Amino acid sequence: MLINFLSKKKQRQLAILQSLFTNTTNGFPYLVKEFDITEVQLTHDIEDINKTVQTIAHQKLVDTSNKHNYTVNIDDIHLYQQLEFHYLNDSLTFQICSEIITHRHLPFNNLCDKLAISTSHCYRVLKQLNSILDQFNIVITIDQHTVPVFTGNEINIRVFIFSFVKYCFPRTNWPFPTISRAETISDFNLLSPNNKLAPSFAEEITLLLAVMKIRLSKSYFAEPMSEYVQTLLQKFVVSDYNTFKSLFFQKKMTDNNIIKVEFFYLNFFAHLLLPNLIEENHAISLGTIISHSHLSADIFVNKLTAKWQERFNLDLASDDLAKVKYFCLIFYVLAFHIHLNIIEILKSDATFLNDKRTINTAAMHDIRSFLTTTLPTIGHNNPCRDLPQDFAIDYFSNLFFFSTQTYKQQQVTIYMHFADYSVREFLKTKLKTIYTPLAVKTVDNINTADIILTDTFDIIVPNKKCIVIRNVFNPQELQTMLTAIDNSLFLSAKR
């Protein structure tokens, strides 16, 4: 998402840096050819990069002393993310979006004054912003009070806001000036006093609560839902309704239907962030409800799980098989039957769904092949019927793999040995953006690790997979690492 808010020029400059870090001695002619730009443009881009990095970090990033051999120091890779966020904060599209999201009431003219831009310029930027929002099926319009507001399905709006504040703000920055971070953390502790969460999980739940609070403060509520949908969603409830009501709704709010809808959605999205919270009895009872409904998804699940067992030799008892089936079915029905645009949040936060990346294993290809012939036969009630077929197949291939792994709750442990501490920290951050701690964990003891990542060929440990990474910006080396982790996660499901 972050890259969408940057100008083409800034995107190109970041791409040039990626190329330099991939091959730290890329020459001038090579870069001109790779990015199809003139020598003058490249010179200006490098000058801009160095000038900006000098401002934010007081050092030079790209060595241009030899015109035909530009170089960067691999030790400076941490500056890349700093430059990303600096460019982002300099983006007017980002600034306007941030102001609209984080303030309760900001009239259009006040927005223009605050950013010191003309109204015509602001309208042009809003048009650019709406092109980004199009993928979420929402839009920003000016209401009767001349306040820029989000228009569209309320859940879609919250999905976008959550993704925005999660990926476009540094972890150390709290994005909501009108919402107390400490109070929001306290709210979560009151809602779920028995949940002991890792800091990364607690942070995401806190952001989720803050997004809900700021939307409620503007009197925007989720759309009403049918009794059938309520029956589905109530299986995900892990917090106390009365506590929720007292924390987030004033006494004058008497419409319990609105409060219930908000309560159900909050618990559901909490499960998307923390899928291990789904208890097996919830999965089984919910699956029973769905399997006897008008949906013909039970045909899909029965075929799919049988194929899954046959292909991967899973030894599942009947109860276990039901749980695996219903994990998949829960997300299948809820994602599309209640018409939520939750694809982005699932891709971003579920264990194996990060951006557009898919698991690259023979197993996944087999599932995808099976789904290619299965999805079209589900029937006229197929929730995927309005989606591009390739997208639907990829989506459910990943979901089914994810649901099985979540049930098994296996974890791959990684030990890192690098001479440069910053490389280790960079890779740890990289892994956190792709996997949750439920799936991948870094450890300090080499003997307890499943995979060893290192920059030397000298480390040999019997029965341990060792991956040598000399350049963290080399796509091939990174893909080797990710494939090894993916395969280890998949194989763990057979233990």
From TrEMBL:
Source organism phylogeny: Bacteria, Bacillati, Bacillota, Bacilli, Lactobacillales
Database matches in Pfam families: Mga
Matching InterPro entries: BglG_antiterminators, Mga_HTH, WH-like_DNA-bd_sf
Keywords: Transcription, Transcription regulation
Residues covered by the Mga helix-turn-helix domain: 81-164
Name of the protein in its database record: Mga helix-turn-helix domain-containing protein
Organism domain of life: Bacteria
